[in-house]
Amino acid sequence: MTQAATNPPPTVEQIARHLFDPVQRELIEVERELQRQLHSPIQLIAQIGHYLHRGGGKRIRPALLLLSNKLFKQSATAPVIRLAAVVECLHMATLVHDDVIDQAELRRGQPSVNQIWGNEITVLMGDWLYMSAFEMALQERRFEVLDILTSLTRQMTEGELIQLAHIGNMAITIDEYLEIIRRKTAYLFSACTEIGALMGGATRFQRQALRDFGLNLGMAFQLIDDVLDFTSTDHVLGKPAGNDLREGKITLPVIYLLEQASTQERRIIEAVIHERDYKQVERSQVVRLLNKCGALSRARAVAREYAMRARALVEDFAPSSSQRALIEMTLFVTERNR
Questions:
Q1: Which terminus of the chain is less hemmed in, N or C, by CB atoms within 10 Å?
Q2: What is the per-residue pLDDT across 272-297, written as a single tens digit (0 to 9) for each?
């Protein structure tokens, strides 16, 4: 019997269960730090902060920072824990603002903040989260970290503005789409891995490798998100499936479809964008078109290419549980179902 037969590769579910094991203790400390930072003597802020914290999330971004740091340090220091909380706080801020822009009603299976408290309060809460994150980061007095976070925040804001300029634009190019997700998603992943390396005392070469690892991983992550928006369900996603097209966002699978679509098929996509709903056209009809032309499998293949680039960037680091977790992360982001 071969070794492969006795030890089959782990499934994505098995990987997901143990992916953050090397930093599990540190992630518990990050949760405590987040709870402290989301508390406020102002009752409304404390109430919304508690609601956001209770809503949870995958915590991939703080885990990436911690895992990158642990490539160089045996355990995370208090400043590293705080910075892991900072990146999650920034992520929360972007989600809160995105939900206002997208007029979202659900987030992670529960009513969005704007649905409960209204747009005005939600926008201000997002601003408060941004400022709280930078206040935490300032405590460390590390100008290199502040440079990364400042640049990141600008890139994410620009990404949102570029995306809004392309709402309903069926002529958007692949390069334009990739630039949007690079700014909106991938740069945050990249900042997490670079900050983790920086705080661990990495060399310039090692820091660059981990920065690029995060960037490629983030691209793969968002590409799969855009595929799952069509293939998954409301229950699994925790928000309405098919939302991107309903909101007028043309993602890579749709770009691939439009490259070869007939006049009738283009009209189907136009109908969804025009009415901002799936009343005239069923979502399943759009999914059938995407499958028929191979758009979903092509988009998955691009995501896997980015994930392979990410994997190659960490394979040369010294073997450890953290290095193994980062390698497994490249499989998890492309094979997950939510």
A1: N
A2: 999 999 989 999 999 999 999 999 99
